[in-house]
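Data card: per-record layout.
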Amino acid sequence: MKRPIKAVVLAAGKSKRMKSGYSKVLHKILGKEIINLLLDSIIGSGIRQEDIILVVGPENSQIKKAINRNIQYSIQKDPLGTAHAVLCAREHLVNFQGDLLVSIGDNPYITSAEISRLRNQHQQSGSQCTLISAIFPHRPPPYGRIIRDQNHEVIRITEEKDASPDQLNIKEVNASIYMFENEIVFPLISDIKDDNAKNEYYLTDIIALCKSGNLKVNTLIAENYQDSFGINNRWEIQEAQKRLNERNQKKLALEHGITIYQPDTVTIEYQVDIGGDTIIYPSTYIAAGTRIGKNCHIGPFVYLKEVSIPDNSTVAFEKRIRGE
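The structure for this 324-residue chain is written out next.
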């Protein structure tokens, strides 16, 4: 029997590298906010929206408006680190006996299937903590390195700014997505110190505390290392747009019978319906709210948004040049 589960999502960062006047989790990828992409995956894994606690900063009205879901909120008034952010959600979890998913709020890649896989492995292994790690084929981004002992067991996570040259060569990193037995979380967080390069309370330090307390720590290695990426700047938004667009198009082709010519020139946002046997031609952009019927021909050089196209329709930009 599965234990009950709740989730804490950390979204109180100030997004300095985005060069933006609003939170990075509100920036859109394929027409949908980063935070809503993550919440879709969490809810899709079977966690009820009313069991999600979103940790936000004091100025959060834009986030609440964009989310528009029946979730709970906690305020992190001062940016003192990820452990402190989880601590801010304690009021919602004091008497909860079950498992707790903790995730950063800026990951648009993680899927419902991966979260379900994390939950299943956590419960089957009998661990008090299970975290997703990612193994890169090259030097990883500046993420925390997974430190293992001679028995290949995880003993701690070292953030890049605190890592030694040898540790920087480690290619297995923390994806910042965890599953805990809720009962262990807050007693351990109270022991976390800020004696590090950023003088912040790192949630990653909870791993070493688990090991010192003889608690079982397990890892789930991500099936695709790129699923560990968070969004920190505007160029990473462009990369996410490309990758998730390709993921969506592959699903449309394989599961819905849609033909897409030159897919690298075609963009299809979320919340788009396309009927079977439809062909999408190059240089076409289909935005959210669009409904396209069966057996249609769309493009080339077409932009559609919030329109309904009947079955058997052709929508194309046509310019004919005839010789004399």
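Known properties of this structure: The first helix runs from residue 34 to 44. The helical segments are 34-44, 61-67, 82-87, 112-125, 165-168, 182-189, 206-212, 234-256.

See the next section for split statistics.
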